[in-house]
Amino acid sequence: MKTIRKHPTKPKVPPEEISNMEEYTKLVEFNLANVNGDNDMFCYRGVGDSLYELIPGLFRHPTEKDYGNLLDKEEKMIKKFVELGTPFFPTGTNFSNEKSRDVLDCLFFMQHWGMPTRLLDWTQNPYVALFFALSEAKKKNEKYDLKCDAAVWVLNAVKWNRWVLKSQGYKGGVLSVGDPALDNYVVVDPTLRRAMNMHPIALWGIHNNVRISVQKGMFVIFGKDVLPMEKQIKGKGIRKHDELLYKVLIKNKNIDSIFKNLYSIGFTDSFVYPDLHGLANEMRRDFGFKVEV
What we know:
Layout: H1 21-33, E1 42-47, H2 67-85, H3 100-112, E2 119-123, H4 126-144, E3 150-156, H5 157-164, E4 201-203, H6 210-214, E5 217-221, H7 229-232, E6 245-250, H8 252-264, H9 269-272, H10 276-286
Antiparallel strand pairs: 1-3, 2-5, 3-6, 4-5
Helix pairs in contact: 4-8
C-alpha cells in the first residue's frame, strides 16, 4: 500500500515567544510563507527591553506631549541643525526648509546622527533586528544589573500602509521619498498641519550611509498621533493573526545563548556596523571585554 506523505499544517498565528535560534528561524519562515506577492512585506525592529514602546525620539520628550508643540520643536531643530551643522555635512549636501522633500531628507540625516525625529527605524533583515534586540539587552542588563527581556517587533508594512490610507483607497505598498502621500506627513506650512495624517506610515529611507544599506534599513514616519504604534491599532478590530503588527518575546534567560548562535553565523558588530566602531566592539567581545557603547 502506497504511503501518502502528509504535509505539516501551516500555523495560523505567529509565535508569541522564542527561546532559541531554531524557533526564531521558524518565525521568519512563517512570515515568508504568508507573503502573497506585493500584498505583504515584513519588516522587523529589535528592542533591548520588551516593554519598550514603538514611539519615535521626538515623541519621547520628557514633558511635551502635544503634537503641535512637538512639531514646532522639530521645525526649530531642523533649522538649528542646518545652521550649525552645515560645515560638517558631506560635500554637496544642501537642505532647505521650503520643500517637503528637503525636510524629509534632513530628517533622515538627523536620525542617523542621533537627533530626535518622528522617524522610527526598522529593517527588512530579521536577523539584524534580532542582533539589535539581544545586543542592546545584554548591554543594558550588564550596565545596570537588570534582567530585562528582549523583543522583536514584526510589521507587515504593506498591510499597515493600506490600513492607514484606506480612506484614500490606497492599494500600493511601502512609500518612497517623493510619493504624494508623504506630503501629508511633512507639512512645511504650520497653518496646514490640520491636514496631516493621523497614523504612522512605512517608507523607504534615503541610504545616505553604509550602515543603513548593510542593515537593510527602512522607516516609519509618525503623523499627528503621539501614541505608540501598538496602541494606535488597539481597539481597531485588527487581530493578531492578521500579521499587521505583533511582538515576539525573548526571555532574559535565553538571550546569551541565542546571541552566541547568532554571532557564530556572522551577525557580528562589524557586520551590522561596518566601520571602526563596529570592529572595535566586536574585538571587545572576542577578547572578553564588555561592550558599553
